[in-house]
Amino acid sequence: MNELIKGIKDHRSIRNFSDTPVEDSLIDEILQAAQAMPNSINGQQSSVIVIKNKETKREIAKLAGNQTWIDDAPVFLVFVMDFYKTDLAAKKNQIQQAIHESIEGTMVGTFDAGLQMGATIIAAESMGLGIVPIGGVRRNPQEMITLLNLPEYTFPVAGLAVGYPKGESHQKPRLPFETFRHFETYQKDGLEAAIEEYDKQMELYLAEIGRPQEGNWSKYTSNIYQYVYYPNVYSALKDQKFSNDK
């Protein structure tokens, strides 16, 4: 196993950050790695907003559901689906852009932003930084759009708190590898048994870190996924001209 893969497999989310600042040059180096990731048709339909301002981070923390580690982290990154740039390219060529009106466009934009966040995580952790992804930037999307001055055809996909870790963090166990890697076709056999065993493992892990009230993986996930937990995303997408009707 090479050192890069070893580092990736050692990933853990960090929610306690030191006061040590993160230099702009380091953030730029990390985001240059992110920008180098592949993207659909070289459309480059994503952007990243770097936030260090304390008041802005505090407001984002509130909008994201009072996630205090956003405020505590020295840097917060917002990954943005960005078809505004491609629309400018279309206008330059007297063409009317349509991709932003389709579910295909939304999938392309969010997936490309996800690829870039993945690279950001790997690059940041390779430099001794800690991170925690934040889906809560979609909790109050219209307020987030206003706060970040996002133009039409853009949408905040996810955030990433970045900073130097303070203290140790436990590594959360994953479902058995066989539930993730499938050969040739999707393999349903054995999944229920694997989930049962993983639930037992997660019960021990949650008790160890002081969160036994979550129960286990299936109970915790089911309790969340019985609702659409960010119900304002669809209307905010439409307001940003992502009609998703094609």
Task: Tell me the total number of β-strands.
Answer: 4
Major sheet summary line: 4 strands, antiparallel
| CA radius of gyration | 19 Å
Pairing-aware structural class of the strands and helices? alpha+beta
Write the element-wise H/E pattern from the N-terminal end onward. HHEHHEHHEHEHHH
Please state the second-level CATH architecture of the domain at 3-171.
Answer: 3-Layer(aba) Sandwich
Q: Treating each run of at least 4 consecutive H or I residues as one helix, how many helices?
A: 10
CATH homology superfamily name of the domain at 3-171:
NADH Oxidase
* End-to-end CA span: 45 Å
Show unreliable segments.
none
**CATH topology-level fold name of the domain at 3-171:** NADH Oxidase
Percent strand equals 5-15%
The helical percent reads: 40-55%
| Shape type | globular
Biggest sheet: strand arrangement = 1-2-4-3
Describe it.
- It is a single chain.
- Helices cover 44% and strands 12% of the residues.
- It has 246 residues and is α+β, with helices and mostly antiparallel strands.
- The chain has a domain at 3-171: 3-Layer(aba) Sandwich (NADH Oxidase).
- The chain has a 4-stranded antiparallel β-sheet, with helices on both faces.
- The longest helix has 24 residues, at 103-126.
Brief descriptors of the model:
246 residues; alpha+beta; NADH Oxidase; 10 helices; 44% helix
Brief account:
44% of the residues lie in helices and 12% in strands.
Helix-strand blueprint:
Elements: H1 3-9, H2 24-35, E1 46-51, H3 54-63, H4 68-72, E2 75-82, H5 84-92, H6 103-126, E3 130-134, H7 141-147, E4 154-163, H8 191-208, H9 217-225, H10 233-239
Antiparallel strand pairs: 1-2, 2-4, 3-4
